[in-house]
Design brief:
The chain is an alpha+beta fold. The protein contains 18 helices and 21 strands.
Length: 553
Amino acid sequence: MIKHFFLLALLFCNGMISAQNSDLFQTDGITTELHKNNVGKVTFMKGNIPLDQYKETDFLKSFELTYKSDLNIRVFMNNSVTNYLHQLNPELPADQLLTTGNLQFAFYIDNKLLYTENLNYGCSFGSAGSKDTSTTFRVPLTSSKKEDWWSIYLWERFKVNGGENALTNGKHKLKIEIRPYQTNQNGSVKTGDLIAKGEIQLILKAPKLTAKQIEIQPIQPNSGWEVSNFAFDKKKIEQLNTAIASYNLKEITSVVVIYDKKLLLEEYFNEADRNTLHDTRSAGKSFASTLAGIAINDGYLKNENQTLNQFYDLKNYANYESKKDSVKIKDLLSMSSAFEGSDQNSDSPGNEENMYPTDNWVKFTLDLPMDKSKTNGGKWDYFTAGVVLMGDIIHKSVPGGLEKYADEKLFKPLNITHYQWQYTPQKVANTAGSLQMTALDYAKYAQLYQNNGLWNGKQILTTDWVQKTLTHQFQIPERENEYYGYLFWNRTFTYKNTPYETYYCAGNGGNEFIIFKNLPLVVIITSKAYNKPYGHAQAEKIVQDYILPSLLK
């Protein structure tokens, strides 16, 4: 009897252990011979071959990697992602597993580990719920079709973190290993066993460039600018053109240089030309600062210390408190309001990605709660919704609305006639960004600030407002010697041990309008490297390694 009881207890305990370690979800299983024969493998293919058409003869052993190529992987697993995470941490319920863990990708080149990334928990693999059930997935690493996948940005981060330097011309072995990972409450990361791995030989060849791609592009007539005859180092600019043409600098569409108020360089790339309207994303935010300054000078706004309660009945919006009343125009311009909104934090209620799907962006912003950890004007935090609010204040305050006012007070005096606004759901010109212009017209706007607001003998913007705008209002957290003014950024280049301070407008993709403080120099760089980790680094490199060395002997 005692023996029988002992056996039952043992079986029960074993059952409990088995239940604890059993899978949470029934998966799609392994239903094909292809999957069965390749469990645990990362396979490589050219483009997206549907799973039901995918064959072992499609598996790539080598691939010529070019700037525009379509290298995909398909991963064959023995289980689903959620179940792997459950095995790693069986005490956590499914919903917590998927908010504290995902897959880890490790990239090797020629057997050397170069980069490891724990995917954000939000990265999914195909259709909804597939983390729970799918045992195979496909993602592109490179794409010529402008696919918007986390995996493409993962590949770009790998390249920025050693891959670019390792993938020199010739042949290289790429190996990818995939494991599950879990982040513990103390922030430490626990990594599981290998799920899948695979390798491929990559072939890289330097593109053949023509003399026309390398030579400095002649400035055509009717630019609207006097052409400079300043003697610069042409070899440096030819090196710049070589880097762009060979895709070492990627997706650059224009580089314009104004030196001593004259047009020195006007270069276009990647199908852009003088008439192209460039989408420079958040670089357009700076125009809200300009228009606020003009409206203050015209008396439509009193000053930058006016508060929100002078423009809105805030008790009609959600989450009212007196702290909201005291948000100043200055706080919106310097991104230092106490709204619970941060574009740097994907979980923030006021993150711009939460704003765009709503049908009223101003109401979205005014409905936000106030952050208990912030004071108005206390600290900098990038907040697009606040700039939309700034635009609405201008729109409500000036005659004819923001768009008409901007045209009459700013664009016509600068002879800017070819441009395109984006709009809010209420059809108000959108000050969050994407005000599209030609590169030469962006140069006029930037030169206006170097001229201290003067253009063709007319004071479009007061000198006082220009100085306030370009004052260091806040240091950018975690960026040494970088500051923020009134919707303008600030950083200093150093060349031959001499610092050169700049103010600049910046937008996603590496779009920058750069105004030098102590040099008669304005640089416009437009680019389509949207959401790529190298976007702004490229713009900085263009100035640091090519423009300044070409001008400063």
